Amino acid sequence: MSHSDSQFDALADAYESSIEQMPFRKHIEMYSFLKVVGETKALNVLDLGCGSGLYTRAIARQGARRVMGLDVSDGMIGYASAREQREPMGIRYLRRDATRDPATISADLGETFDLVTAVYVLPYASSQDGLTAICSTAYHALSGPEGRFVAAVLNPHFSREADWYREYGMELTGAVEPSEGAPVHLHAWFGDHILDLDAFYWSRAAHERAFQDAGFRRIKWHSPVLADSDDPATKDRRLWNNYLQCPHALIVEATR
Questions:
Q1: What DSSP element (H or E) covers 27?
Q2: I need a labelling partner for 90 at 20 to 30 A (CA). Which of 32, 69, 187, 235 fits?
Q3: Can you list the alpha helix ranges (DSSP code H) found in 31-104?
């Protein structure tokens, strides 16, 4: 997820527990994102807006050659780094603003990457320029013409019905006919945690313009799917109908 200091510094524990306590995150969100990411063996991967390292570690577990996580939040980077010390996976975590000087990213980090990921980073861009800057950072971090940027973003057509996502432990509110950059509010509850996060609405066209302006030439949108799993939570497909019919997030795959 994406991070400005004020919203995210103290939320690492909540993010970590949400993957188990909000079943849609494991059985739909993470499953779908990693499916689009695909094979990572022998790849050098950069996770932008890595937060607590939840997805960073998942990517490392899939066999990536080297993984780095960047985030602007001191609290998130502190948590991720401490966990890496306790449970070494060879991940390097650094504090960096993904919107700052995109063209300098490779020089700053001293390396380039085959794949860049970003889970819920783009929804926190407060302007079209900020949206483009994140995409440009990903573009300049990539090493070659087939380098990919895979991002989980807010679905521009998320349901405005008040109870649509309630059974999944969250409410998402925003204008029925929003303008670009209009505020969106996420209220979520799970275990002992309550999250209230403010993000921004961007249309599909605004996303695609940001990717294209950054230099990406091929853009593909993916809808999330339910994992084919032995977990009992995935067996009653009726439980997931609302979410799969109108998910709160989509996955964008952009290629240089």
A1: none
A2: 32
A3: 31-37, 54-61, 74-86
215/77 Cα distance (integer angstroms): 29
Residues in the chain: 256
- SS3 of residue 208 by DSSP: helix
Domain boundaries, given as residue ranges, for the chain:
5-156+203-255
What is the spatial order of strands in the sheet that 170-174 belongs to?
Answer: 170-174, 183-190, 193-200
Question: What is the token pair recorded at 230?
Answer: 């032995």
- Token pair, residue 122, equals 């783009």
CA-CA distances (angstroms) from residue 157 to 25, 33, 165, 231? Answer: 19, 19, 13, 29
- Burial class of residue 90, CB neighbours in 10 A (0-12, 13-18, 19+): exposed
Pairing between β-strand 148-154 and β-strand 91-95 as defined by DSSP bridges: unpaired
- DSSP per-residue codes, 201-241: ---HHHHHHHHHHHT--EEEEE-------S-GGGT-GGGGH
**Angle of helix 74-86 relative to helix 12-21, nearest 10 degrees?**
70
Judged by phi (left if over 0) then psi (alpha if -120 to 50, else beta), residue 63 lies in left
Is the pTM higher than 0.90?
yes
The separation between CA 219 and the C-alpha centre of its own chain, rounded to angstroms, equals 17
Structure tokens at 63: 């066999």
pLDDT in tens, 140-186: 999 988 999 999 999 999 999 999 999 999 999 999 999 999 999 99
In the block, residue with structure tokens 């900020």:
130
